[in-house]
Amino acid sequence: TAWAFAKLGHFDQSLFAAVARRFRDSGAMNDDQLGAQFIANVAWAFSKASEAGKLEQATSEELFKNLATAAEASVADFTAADLANVAWAFANANQMDPTLFQSLANRAENFLDDFNDEELDNAEWAFARAGMHRIVKRLKQNRKRAVEDAAAAKAEVGEVDVSGCGTIVVAGGGIGGAACAVALQKRGFDVVVLESDPSFDARKQGYGLTVQRQDAVNAMGIDLAADDAPSTSHYTFDDRGHILGVFGEAFGGRDTGKERKECKNSGRFIHIPRQVLRLRILEAVRPGTIRWNSRLEGFKTSKKNPKLIRVKLTGGDAIDAALLVGSDGIFSTVRRKLALPGDRLNYVGLMVVLGIVDDSILNVPLTKRRIFETVDGSTRIYVMPFTTSSTMWQLSFPMEEKEARELAKDQNALKMEITQRCAAWHEPIPDLLANTPLDGFSGYPVYDRELLQPEVLRKAATDAGMSRVTLVGDAAHPMTPFKAQGANQAISDAVLLAETLADGVRKYGADGGFDKALPTFEQKMLNRSSRMVVGSREKAKVMHSNLALRPARKVQRETDVDMVRVIKMLRAKGVGAKTSNDERGLDAVVADVMRLCASGGVMEVVENDDKKEKRDRVTDEKTPSKKQKLLAHIDGEWVKCTLIKTKENGKHKVKLKGGNKVVVPADGVKPLRGREIN
Known about the structure:
By secondary structure, this protein is α+β, with helices and mostly antiparallel strands. The chain has 20 helices and 22 strands. A hairpin with a 5-residue loop joins strand 19 (637-646) and strand 20.
């Protein structure tokens, strides 16, 4: 209960105090059967309540003392994930109980080889904050050794003779398919890629993406540094330009321990146009590998050899493949032909519009070397560098599936929808949307699929008599774009496939290696990607709800600054989206406020604080009129309604779609925008 209320940003002091008393009085915290996830959730919830000033210090101290006792009693049963979650939750709450953290550190010695990358990051950060330098050193050493061992294993696998394995056919020459070709060819496999485009230039330039798995790109021997359009900071604003969250290397980094300026590159991630990334990968493919203007029509087991797959093309040609890899996207023909049980697309209820604006059309400071996103509880825009001389934006909002599909076909109607929807948002968003040419943006409804279980995929292929068929990328695990993981996962799939196949051949020979390797590959691929599919789906919900408006939702971990207080101080000082016009630069101004906050500085309320905002809103916006169609904020969501009347105290009486009449606060209604009116 406490976690759910904290997640929604509702911190009722009496509720949290009652929960804390119940734990104390019932002796629940002394129960050594409490799960690690439960302990971590409670710690997180009460830390948020404390940050919001809704928990007395004595109550907080007693609760965390009891939590630490419960965690210490259960630590022997913790997994690596449990340990990382609990350590992070306590460190994030600034509750570094020495006895607990010593117990966690001792237990961590048993998991040095078991942490995944995210868990390792969380554990390192938590132990470092708790001053547990010995275990931090051990974790870092083990991370380094794991990288070296992986490199040695790859080198060993690379020496395997795969010349007798036959031809691997990859359906789809996008980023995932091209990556498969490069990774497989580096292991010595013979590869043919079928691509329906008549040529590379037949496809539009596409939109930008963020390469987050540089280890996978580096494994293919591809250097993207010269193509990066770097950013060193990330901001979240509300629709009026107030800062809700900020983080990035511009404000200090774990790697350098020094401040990073706006003029330096991002280092960790690379922002690159999709077609440029595709080109760089294709440049590493052997000549003749890509068969342009070739579309897969179907496939079946070869009559001559049951271990081969007869791949038929639309022109009548056929290829006998030792393995068919479906890398043909979310609407995959290969996946459809496998007839997976219950397989269908899942509409997530959102429309996405993507656009690109060149600096020659619009050049504004806020979109340079910086990522920013703006949210209003329903609609969200995400803006990032496309190249060093252009900007890409992604606008998303709720819409019925049928309406979204129709809107995607009408460019003029789509332009009207997005400009009306964000007309009152802070600059430069209205100009950014208005100045994007009609041929510079496109929209589509967002789909994903339910998680594909590896045993289901393997059984479907085997039952059809085609065990030498597998899937990668969006064909295997399509996801929403809100964690920017689609291309990253596809590249990781390609590298994993090549490594696993080569290892299978090394252990079992050319004849049996593929059959042994495919179940292992699919298990690893789908287990890894499932976290991203679920995470992307959850983020889609959060970013289009009032949860997105919670201040300090994304925390700058590498500093010891109280980010909730930083956000309040930025608001009090009038620092926001418009500050990008400051000659010092937005990042520098924010960094100054962080330092002031860290040193115990005092907030100075300026004229353009909330009071002025409310006064301006009364002046600038018309009072809702009787029978006007509006959106009312009911139970955490914006729903359509009709205004009945506005009371003297400012509250509004409205009629909902089903006929119910309710009273909402003065700020609980807003006008309908764009196609919401229909």
